[in-house]
Design brief:
The protein is α/β, with parallel strands linked by helices and 368 residues long. It contains 10 helices and 17 strands. The chain is globular, with a radius of gyration of 19 Å.
Length: 368
């Protein structure tokens, strides 16, 4: 039987309404406290017709929290804010997983009281990030983590996952992509360790798998996804053989029977700063990962439908199209033209370009 984007599907512990998933996207609306607010609850509720919403990246600890306006899940107030988001999405019949991250070497020292960022090795990220005054600031050289610090980070991921489930969210996605802490342990361009966490494929995968196992013990495998970005070059991240390391890691994840593996690979001609000009690794991961797989990156309805129909993935995730089209699944189903996004408002902090896009699929304003 031919599969299509609108088929219901079992993913981990949940039966989902379709295979059109909302990708995680930082939107910088949580303010300095990192507490999700009413505007964020509205934003996610508007997009509840996605088969699954994967939230923006959410910090597991203060020292891993460095993106201005991004939320956290390490305080009671942040947990309560996410509970409001979960309620709003569920009231609309949707499902939402919370993407959790530790930013690792991409945290500016001023964001963590002058401490050095944490990383597998003392290799600074390339590029810059806005500081508290909005001034682009180069990254500092991070501190190479001790084994005790690694153990602490593993525990922080497990605690964040427990808080997410206690808040009523449906599951968590471990952010093992885009240069952040787990990704930096996986790749040999950022991991130069000579202990049990560096060198071989097994050792470089150790931190990821310790995090996964701790989170599984806390909330169960059917509520957990993992996101990879094998060909991503953001912030100077690199690996000498991405197919080897990510295939090895994917094989180990298969044994854990997680809800899904989520692979981000923008097309080579997409113009994305994430593209390193490397050949796709997703087909190799599809071959070795025995479980539900999501593909994300530069997809349209047509190309996404082809991915599902040909079995290259079980579902597809859309990012920017969901920003401007809260009812994206309905628009796809009904052949309704897509609204255009306003990139200047992606991280602007207000309602404009966030919760004011029209809901053409149901021909009513978004949020009603």
């Amino acid at each position: 039987m031919t599969k299509n984007l609108f088929d219901p599907i079992q993913v981990g512990d949940y039966r989902l309404n379709n295979r059109i998933f909302m990708a995680p996207m930082t939107r910088a609306r949580a303010g300095a406290s990192g507490v999700p607010n009413e505007m964020m609850a509205t934003y996610y509720a508007q997009r509840a017709s996605a088969g699954l919403i994967i939230s923006e990246a959410t910090a597991v600890s203060p020292r891993g929290d460095g993106w201005p306006g991004a939320p956290g899940i390490y305080t009671d107030a942040q947990q309560a804010g996410w509970a409001s988001v979960a309620d709003a999405v569920h009231d609309r019949g949707g499902r939402i997983f919370l993407q959790i991250w530790h930013m690792g070497r991409a945290v500016l020292s001023e964001s963590i009281g002058g401490q050095r960022a944490l990383a597998p090795s003392e290799i600074a990220a390339e590029g810059e990030l806005p500081n508290s005054e909005g001034i682009p600031t180069a990254f500092d050289t991070p501190e190479a983590m001790s084994v005790d610090q690694i153990d602490e980070a593993v525990a922080e991921f497990a605690s964040a996952a427990r808080r997410a489930i206690d808040a009523g969210l449906d599951g968590v996605e471990l952010h093992a992509a885009n240069n952040f802490l787990i990704d930096a342990f996986l790749r040999d361009g950022t991991n130069k360790r000579d202990d049990d966490y560096g060198g071989s494929l097994k050792n470089r995968s150790r931190f990821l798998l310790e995090v996964v196992d701790a989170v599984v013990a806390e909330i169960g495998a059917g509520k957990i996804g993992v996101r990879f970005s094998p060909t991503n070059a953001v912030f100077g991240i690199s690996d000498s053989n991405p197919e080897a390391i990510f295939s090895f890691a994917a094989r180990q994840l298969s044994k854990r029977e997680l809800a899904y593996l989520h692979v981000l690979e923008p097309a080579l001609d997409s113009g994305s700063p994430m593209v390193a000009g490397l050949p796709s690794v997703a087909p190799a991961l599809r071959d070795v990962y025995d479980g539900f797989m999501i593909l994300n990156g530069s997809l349209t309805q047509k190309t996404g439908a082809d991915v599902v129909e040909t079995g290259r993935a079980d579902a597809v995730a859309f990012g920017v199209p969901f920003i401007a089209n809260p009812d994206l699944a309905e628009r796809f189903a009904n052949g309704i033209a897509l609204s255009e996004p306003k990139p200047e408002t992606f991280y602007s902090g207000g309602a404009d370009g966030y919760i004011d896009y029209p809901n053409g699929g149901r021909l009513t304003p978004a949020g009603q």
